[in-house]
Amino acid sequence: MQDTQTLSSNTTSEMKVIAGDWITVCTKNDLVENSGVCALLPAHLVRGDAKIEDNLEVQIAIFYIKQINKVFAISNYDPIGKANVMYRGIVGSISDEPMVSSPLYKQHFSLETGICFEKPEYMLRTYLCRIQDNLVQVKVGSINHSSQ
């Protein structure tokens, strides 16, 4: 069994945004199949409501689902458990929808929409994510949903 890991972030000055506004977070080899890793990114690159001078950072959880060869990026913050722990959750599916269960209280969140299956009033921020030339990338400003 492989353990989850936290990825070291680049400093804001070292973070490179490539053409098309994608941030390279890590390589595919840094990911743990069917599990999560945590990355720390400058908030102004992934959230529309942050400014570069605020010097804020955002934790995101990145999951690589080998069976469908797809990566998902969501907020690492569990809005029910009120802790940055989502990368430690167990992945699976409910009605063919990829999901992660919170390691704290076991609620299930969609990796595609961020919505909690048991309590839809709670949702995680989701980010567009891809693997391009073995690089895992997150789209700048690509929030699909807001945490409640």
Description:
The protein has one helix spanning 43-46, and strands at residues 5-6, 17-18, 22-27, 35-42, 57-65, 70-75, 77-78, 83-84, 90-94, 97-101, 108-110, 126-127, 129-132, 135-139. A hairpin with a 4-residue loop joins β7 (77-78) and β8 (83-84). Strands 1-4-5-6-12 form a five-stranded mixed beta sheet. Strands 2-3-14-13 form a four-stranded antiparallel beta sheet, with no helix packed on it. A three-stranded antiparallel beta sheet has the order 9-10-11, with no helix packed on it. The chain has one helix and 14 strands; from the N terminus they run ββββαββββββββββ. The protein has one domain (5-139): Rieske Iron-sulfur Protein (3-layer Sandwich).
Q: Whole-Å distance between the termini?
A: 33 Å
CATH class (first level) name: Mainly Beta
Mean pLDDT: 83
Strand order of the largest sheet: 1-4-5-6-12
Strand content: 35-45%
What is the makeup of the main sheet? 5 strands, mixed
Task: Give the CATH superfamily.
Answer: Rieske [2Fe-2S] iron-sulphur domain
The sequence of SSEs as H and E is EEEEHEEEEEEEEEE
Number of helices: 1
Question: What Rg, in angstroms, do the CA atoms define?
Answer: 14 Å
- The number of strands is 14
Number of domains: 1
Helix fraction by DSSP (H/I, runs of at least 4): under 10%
Which structural class do the helices and strands define?
A: mainly beta
Q: Spans with pLDDT under 50 lasting ≥5 residues?
A: 1-14
- CATH level-two architecture: 3-layer Sandwich
Shape: globular
